[in-house]
Each structure stands twice: as structure tokens, then as C-alpha cells.
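Hi Y.,

Following your request, here is the sequence exactly as I used it, all 326 residues.
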Amino acid sequence: MTIKGIDVSSHQKSIDWVKVKNDGIKYVIIRAGYGQVHEDDYFKANIKGAIAAGLPVGIYWFSYALNKQQAIEEAEGCTNLIKGYKITLPIFFDFEGDSARYAAKNGVTLTKPLFNELVKAFCDHIQSKGYRAGVYYNPNYQRNYVDSNVCDKYVQWMAHYTNSNNTAYDIHQTTSAGKVAGISGNVDIDYINSSEMLKLFETPAAKPAPVKKGTIAVDGSWGVSTTKALQKIFKTSVDGVISNQPTSNKKYLAAASKTSWNFKDSNYKAGSQLIKALQKKIGVTADGLFGRNSVIALQKFLGVAVDGSMGPGTVKALQNWINKNL
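Below is the corresponding structure, written out as C-alpha cells. Let me know if you'd prefer a different format.
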């Protein structure tokens, strides 16, 4: 599997990012800036446009660092510029021929140790800020400057213009003369091959909705399961018994036509801890006697019709509340 993208800078000027995406481009690596510390003229337009179009974004920084400290300063300048934007792909250190020529003009000769010192300083600072770091180079630099003990720690982006993708490279820039809708003129074409990078494009498998253990049926009948669930919520003894009668006892259950439940009846033992806990929750006197006033308070608490009758509608609403709070 491989994924096609592009990299852009101010050289491409204005870009129609919707057309870019519709042309099959899956991501973009954007130049944020260069040197000490210069923002790319089109950086903000590019990153806002790409993100708005739904394209994953990576960043590169064209370096003119002459020493380790300047490489760190470039990395710091880069991370300051990209704050507030969603960066999905790595941030790449880009040191090319123009970088080496600038160094020579300033009395600094590019050597293999210096190149790798700059790479490490930039990339480690980038990663200290929570981003993934990478390094961009070409086959000439790979032969003459790259120390694999250093660069292999970062994502490697190879500029090798073969016009066909080499899957041995983490990211392969195959041409600088690509044509993409929404961009006038040429643009670099890149292919991601790294399994690590490809994972960023995988659609997570849908997870089944979590099922709460002990979820009760919403059937309008206050039986043992409803009582036990309430007892769990209010942390009272979980035995399915409100007082001295099991809730499956037909004498205990209130018929839908009754206007109230009153646990003062001789069949039941007043002072149930569960009933008291429920009364406290709905804001009435916790006396263990669930009469009309308690029913009305419960109905107001549940947001159902207030009629003082503990019928199936009220019980269903209570069961729904239980399921949300188990």
C-alpha cells in the first residue's frame, strides 16, 4: 500500500485545495518557513486551505543553520508558527545544496558530522514539542553526509526523481514536475510507503456501543430487576426487596390505576432504606412512605406528566433514568 501526496511552498502561489483533494491527493507537506526565522509567504493560506479541505498536513523547514544552536532556533521558530494547527504528519528538516552554499559563504564547510549534528538538533527539538520529526535528503546526501545511526531515528523523506515510487523509502519524492488540479505549474509528488506513516491513514474499525452490565428492561413494570438496579445506584443492600416483601409479590406492586403507593400498609415494613434514598434524591421528606406527594415529586424529577399516579409511564421513565445512571 502507498499513498500519494504533494509538498508545496510559496513557489506554487495560490492553490485551490478542494480541486487538489478531488484530484486524488491524500496529504500535503507544507513549507512553514526557512532560516532564522522567516515564514513562508503562503504558509498560512496553504495550511488553512489544506486543513479546510480535509487533507492531513505535514511540515518542512528549509534550513540555513550553521551550527547546532541555529538548528534548534529554526525548530523553535517552526513550532511557534504551527501552533494551533492540526499537524498529522512529521515535521521535516530540509538541508539542501543552497543551504550548503550559504554555509560556505559564511565560512562553514558542510561535513558529515556537521550535517548529522544539525539533523539531530532540529529533530530532537521538534520531538520534544510532541511532534514526529523527519529528515529530507537526496541520494547524494545519503551517500556523503547521512549517518544512519542518527537519521534512522527519524522519518526519512527521499528526493529521488525516478518518476516511479520506490517503496524502500519511507516517503519518496518522485518528481518536481508533477501536475495536479488546483495548482498552476509544477508541483512535487510524494508517496508514503512507511508502515508507520500509513497507519495514520487507516480508518479505525467501528467499535460496538458499550453495553452496560445489568441494564434493565424498560417495560413499565417495577419488579425485582428494577429494585436491584435502584439499590445498586443508591448503594443499599442489593436483594430485590424494598421492605419485607419481594418486589415480585403481586400484592406489593401498585396497579396502574392506583393513585399512590403507600408503604405504611400493614403488608409492608415502613422505613425502607431504598425508598428513603430515592426520596432524598427527588427532594421530599425521607420517611420511607412513598405516597402521592412522593410520586408527584418523582414525576417532576423525571420530567413526565404529573398526575400522582405511579403508572407504567412513570415506571418506564424511572427505568430509563436507572439505565443512564447504572
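The chain has a mean pLDDT of 88.

Thanks again,
Q.
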